[in-house]
Write a structure and sequence with these properties.
The chain has 11 helices and 12 strands. Strand 5, helix 4 and strand 6 form a beta-alpha-beta unit. Pfam families: DUF1611, DUF1611_N.
Length: about 375
């Protein structure tokens, strides 16, 4: 079955596919894009719906509703809609806004995607299992003349070179997975731009790709090409601006350290921001595996980053304090600031102004 006419990859909307120009971040005309219906399906907790939640938080103007199955108790705070209601209210694309172990679609999800297509919406997904691999979904897209967008479909890439390149880059790194690296990076972009500084968010995960309109799904890249992917997404820039690169995983996570290391080498970061959730009991998905000591975590990330940029600096710590009270959150931030002589803020509840102050102090912006 030829699906090339209506199946798109994470970078198929981009006019530039070489390292000589930045990928544009607008959505393609006359195709998938907002307004969005966010699909939560049977999501059992907030992490399972993290893609939908990220879009609802950072691009609320694009999101008109959510679709939940009857047993779903998770919400992103949008109006519940069935597929016909969503289309009648102007939804152009349904985003499969859930994530699960293995990234597979169950039978309910497949049925719902087909229903969304039959109701006139394009469908975009960040799951590892591609929409284009499922015959009923492809058939529904073809009969309705609609597009499928697989965010976890990387472009053709080269291996990293490690050669210095123009421009400045900041990379968020983590003590664990899912501690707020994307939120921190987007908050930094917002604050940089508020100050009139040239800065661009560079997405490396499915949620970030939906928010930015393009990027590289790093966890779908063959290992040898991860550093090359980071080079591709942050090519040379001559405007004295910053690429703010969304980090992934953690050097200390036994499952995902490889992708973190590749990003550190390929980004050639001038600046690092360490992201951390202070009250997490263990590494995500690994009971009994403690989180690393923060000082050891900082030193390990600096050591890895120095391979391609010996002058790299840590400019701040971003905390996810969503499970702490306001007073406790402020106390934890103050303690880290005293211990590390670095600004420490929760990007969502406190902003990142003092972290950007440190960037400007260190780099003369």
């Amino acid at each position: 079955m030829d699906t090339s006419a209506n199946v798109m990859s994470a970078t198929s909307s981009e006019a530039a596919t070489s390292s000589s120009a930045h990928p544009p971040v607008q959505h393609p005309p006359n195709g998938w894009g907002p307004p969005y219906l966010l699909y939560l399906g049977n999501a059992h907790d907030e992490l399972a719906a993290k893609t939908a939640r990220g879009l609802a938080h950072w691009r609320p103007q694009w999101c008109i509703g959510q679709h939940r199955r009857s047993g779903c108790r998770t919400t992103v705070g949008l109006a519940d809609m069935d597929f016909a209601q969503a289309r009648a209210n102007g939804a152009n694309t349904m985003i499969v806004g859930v994530a699960n172990a293995g990234g597979l679609m169950d039978a309910d999800t497949v049925d719902d995607i087909v229903a969304a297509l039959d109701n006139g919406m394009h469908v975009a997904s960040g799951l590892h299992q591609r929409l284009s691999s499922c015959a009923p979904i492809v058939a529904a897209a073809n009969r309705n003349g609609l597009q499928l967008f697989d965010a976890r479909h990387p472009p053709l890439l080269q291996v990293g070179s490690g050669r210095p390149r123009a421009g400045r880059r900041l990379l968020t790194v983590g003590s664990d997975c899912s501690v707020g690296k994307m939120y921190a990076t987007l908050a930094l972009e917002q604050e940089f731009r508020r100050r009139g500084l040239a800065a661009d968010f560079r997405a490396t995960g499915q949620t970030g790709i939906f928010i930015a309109g393009g990027g590289v799904p790093i966890d779908a890249v063959v290992a040898d090409f991860i550093s090359g992917a980071a080079e591709w997404i942050s090519p040379p820039r001559e405007d004295d601006g910053w690429d703010l690169i969304e980090g992934q995983g953690s050097l200390f996570h036994p499952s995902y350290a490889g992708v973190s290391l590749g990003l550190l080498h390929g980004s050639q970061p001038d600046a690092l921001v360490l992201c951390h959730e202070p009250n997490r009991a263990h590494m995500r998905g690994l009971p009994g595996q403690p989180l690393p000591d923060l000082r050891a975590c900082l030193e390990a990330n600096l050591a890895a980053a120095r391979l391609t940029n010996p002058a790299v600096q840590v400019v701040g710590v971003a905390l996810n304090t969503s499970r702490l009270g306001a007073d406790d959150a402020r106390d934890v931030c103050r303690a880290i600031e005293v211990a590390f002589d670095l600004p420490c803020q929760d990007p969502v509840s406190m902003g990142v102004s003092r972290i950007v102050d440190r960037v400007q102090s260190c780099f003369g912006d």
